[in-house]
Amino acid sequence: MSIVPVWTLILGAAVFFYVVLDGFDLGIGILYNFARNRTDRQAMMNSIAPVWDGNETWLVLGGLGLLAAFPVAFAIILPAVYFPILVMLLALVFRGVAFEFQFRDAEHRHFWDHAFSIGSAVATFAQGIVLGAFIQGFDVEGRHFVGGSFDCFTPFSLFTGLALMCGYSLLGACWLILKTEGDLAERARHWARRAFLGTLAAVGIVSLWTPFIDADIAHRWFSWPNILFLSPVPLATAITGFLWWRAMAKKLDVAPFIYAILLFTLAYLGIAISLFPMIVPHHFSLEQAASDPSTQIFLGLGTLFLLPVIFVYTGWSYWVFRGKVRGDIGYH
Q1: Is the pTM of this model over 0.85?
Q2: DSSP states of 286-311 as a string?
Q3: Tens digits of residue pLDDT in 290-312
Q4: To 5 degrees, how large is the angle CA 24–CA 30–CA 34?
Q5: What are the distances in angstroms from CA 5 to CA 1, 141, 217, 290, 292?
């Protein structure tokens, strides 16, 4: 008995939760050097300090889940995007070291500030390159990647790298609106508006660019009656953008973050519609790349047992550290 649909949901959820949860703290890192003073930077750090490292649980789950449930896809995708993934992991490590030393090495705090921001930006850009390369597809013969190490660097993937930086900056700014107050919150609103315009423009460009990459994607979106059935996705994106802008005009705290997450959800849905059921675009479907059913069932049982634990401790962390923060006293 195959449980490919179950593993598809698990991996899809892992990628989504990673993008949203680690996205906002990477976004704060991107915005970090734009803070005016030490107090604001401390408040930005305090807003993510209790949760930032736990967010990467979803990255580990996604990577190991891909290896266990879809080994053919893992064997093709990893060599194809090995270089940007290596850069991403090194940047995440560098960022994590900078996060800790920023508190403990006051003498070199200026250096660690820049390291934290640069590490966040590089990790985000590398993730965007992986996304763009994945959408474009890979050179495959049989079950092996036969392209070059730098084939993933294309105009499209470089643009998706910049687009993801805008998107994560939007999430980070909206998180600061939710978690901070005073002058920093007002500056976050300014950052959020700029990041929102960049994100919306990037979503539009990628949405128009993607159908030119592959004829099947163009047919899926623009053939009749698909164009009728799928039109709610761009329509919902436009409505969400309008609601986000209105929430900002009303100076709401929670709504901008929720609408930003909804924008990411709709973009994620758009990518899924374009590529489903392919896990190695244009070559292997989910069923074709799946591991043996007995392996999927065995690992799936353990994963389904652990998922509630992850949800509980993640939710508990956010609940315990709810409320506003300040640079001088932390949570209050």
Answers
A1: yes
A2: HHHH---HHHHHHHHHHHHHHHHHHH
A3: 888 888 888 888 888 888 988 89
A4: 120
A5: 11, 26, 22, 10, 14
